[in-house]
């Protein structure tokens, strides 16, 4: 009995101690005031930002001239308004609506201007806050929605494969410049990826260099980009990128228009690109001559290197026009990075189309008017034999055809420009 009573007393004491400690703890916790965290609201007066933007650029008597608009927006005003009206018509994000309080949201002009400024200047998202009156997260949302919708709305037209009419114009220009059968220049560009995940840096960085993403592109004389392949890691060189590239898929699968051209009395049926020395000696690539020894070779190297600079100029114009492509990209999501690049290329092609007549100085009117017979033409009739319908991969990589074509081009350029030189 004494042992049982002692256990009950001990249990009761433990309960009293626990209750006492709990009361003291609750008293201490209740006396501490935890500040309530509330979302900070900043009244940005977005209506005033819209009015200022309208008065600066879009009113009947704007503050800034069309030349200043072209420099800051990277395009003419009518082209920018075409983008705004198209996005506002088809996509709810760019449509102005009332919120729950009955207040109007941001306008399509403000959202598109924010996206263009971020693409053009490559600055942080909050740099447009003071002028356009929208927060950092809203500016980033405008940027990513803008790139998505630009690709969806204009991608089929401005990232299209060359049509037979486009291909004939490229062939005429190539013939005028001394390269019958040439349809453009191909090269690669690297875009630094600042916030590349640590686990991927070994794949995207060469040695101790910065991680980069590769862009392969084909460009013509007017800086129009006809082929885009973006996404290979920066450790790959141009040849490795070419192995993954779909640049010849249309030819191998029979979707590309067939061409036929004559050089120095010989007929060829595969168009080619001008390249630098790293590319292989295929029938579809023509490189310069590294150490020319004869006047013919010197003239060919001079003309080929000058013509091949089309793609280098295109990369330079693309980077100067959209600084976000020149600066290290900070986005973590690789899919968003790819959409930014594609949207910039679409906008670049739209600007080229809008301003092409102002700087394209190669006159091909003699071919269009029928005053001269062209050596290069797009075939309209399908071949009769099954073996000649689709070229094979071996045809594209034929080294003997490459050597014969290059010798014919050397002679053709000497006949065409030798007296002038």
Structural shape: elongated
Using the CA coordinates, give the radius of gyration: 32 Å
The SS-based structural class is: alpha/beta
Low-confidence stretches: none
The strand line-up of the biggest sheet is 3-2-1-6-7
- In whole angstroms, the N-to-C terminal distance is 125 Å
Tally of DSSP β-strands: 8
Outline:
The protein has 421 residues and is an alpha/beta fold. The chain is 52% helix and 10% strand. The termini are far apart.
Walk me through the structure.
The protein is built from 17 helices and 8 strands. The chain has helices at residues 2-31, 46-58, 66-73, 77-90, 108-121, 129-132, 136-158, 164-176, 201-204, 238-244, 249-252, 295-321, 323-326, 334-359, 365-368, 393-396, 399-417; strands at 182-192, 212-219, 225-233, 259-263, 266-268, 272-274, 285-286, 376-378. The longest helix has 30 residues, at 2-31. The protein is elongated. The termini are far apart. The model has no long low-confidence stretch (mean pLDDT 88).
Q: What is this structure's SSE topology?
A:
Elements: H1 2-31, H2 46-58, H3 66-73, H4 77-90, H5 108-121, H6 129-132, H7 136-158, H8 164-176, E1 182-192, H9 201-204, E2 212-219, E3 225-233, H10 238-244, H11 249-252, E4 259-263, E5 266-268, E6 272-274, E7 285-286, H12 295-321, H13 323-326, H14 334-359, H15 365-368, E8 376-378, H16 393-396, H17 399-417
Parallel strand pairs: 1-6, 6-7
Antiparallel strand pairs: 1-2, 2-3, 4-5, 4-8
């Amino acid at each position: 009995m004494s042992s049982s009573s002692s256990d009950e007393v001990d249990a009761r004491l433990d309960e009293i101690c626990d209750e006492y400690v709990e009361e003291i703890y609750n008293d201490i916790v209740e006396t501490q005031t935890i500040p309530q965290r509330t979302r900070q609201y900043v009244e940005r007066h977005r209506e005033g930002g819209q009015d200022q933007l309208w008065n600066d650029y879009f009113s009947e008597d704007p503050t800034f001239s069309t030349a200043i608009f072209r420099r800051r927006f990277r395009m003419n005003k009518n082209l920018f308004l075409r983008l705004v009206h198209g996005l506002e018509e088809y996509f709810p994000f760019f449509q102005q609506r009332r919120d729950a309080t009955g207040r109007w949201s941001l306008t399509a002009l403000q959202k598109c201007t924010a996206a263009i400024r971020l693409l053009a200047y490559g600055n942080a998202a909050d740099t447009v806050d003071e002028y356009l009156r929208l927060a950092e997260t809203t500016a980033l949302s405008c940027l990513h929605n803008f790139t998505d919708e630009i690709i969806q709305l204009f991608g089929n037209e401005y990232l299209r494969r060359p049509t037979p009419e486009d291909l004939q114009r490229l062939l005429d220009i190539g013939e005028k410049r001394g390269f019958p059968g040439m349809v453009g220049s191909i090269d690669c560009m690297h875009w630094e990826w600042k916030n590349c995940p640590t686990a991927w840096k070994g794949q995207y960085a060469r040695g101790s260099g910065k991680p980069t993403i590769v862009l392969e592109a084909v460009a013509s004389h007017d800086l129009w980009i006809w082929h885009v392949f973006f996404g290979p890691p920066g450790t790959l060189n141009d040849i490795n990128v070419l192995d993954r590239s779909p640049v010849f898929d249309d030819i191998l699968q029979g979707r590309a228009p067939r061409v036929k051209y004559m050089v120095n009395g010989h007929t060829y049926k595969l168009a080619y690109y001008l390249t630098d020395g790293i590319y292989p000696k295929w029938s579809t690539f023509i490189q310069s001559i590294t150490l020319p020894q004869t006047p013919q070779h010197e003239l060919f190297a001079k003309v080929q290197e000058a013509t091949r600079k089309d793609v280098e100029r295109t990369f330079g114009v693309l980077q100067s026009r959209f600084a976000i492509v020149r600066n290290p990209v900070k986005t973590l999501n690789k899919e968003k990075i790819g959409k930014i690049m594609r949207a910039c290329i679409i906008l670049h092609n739209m600007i080229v189309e809008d301003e092409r007549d102002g700087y394209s100085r190669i006159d091909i009117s003699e071919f269009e008017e029928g005053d001269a017979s062209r050596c290069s033409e797009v075939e309209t009739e399908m071949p009769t034999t099954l073996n000649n319908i689709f070229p094979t991969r071996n045809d594209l990589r034929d080294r003997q055809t490459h050597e014969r074509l290059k010798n014919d081009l050397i002679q053709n350029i000497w006949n065409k420009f030798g007296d002038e030189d």
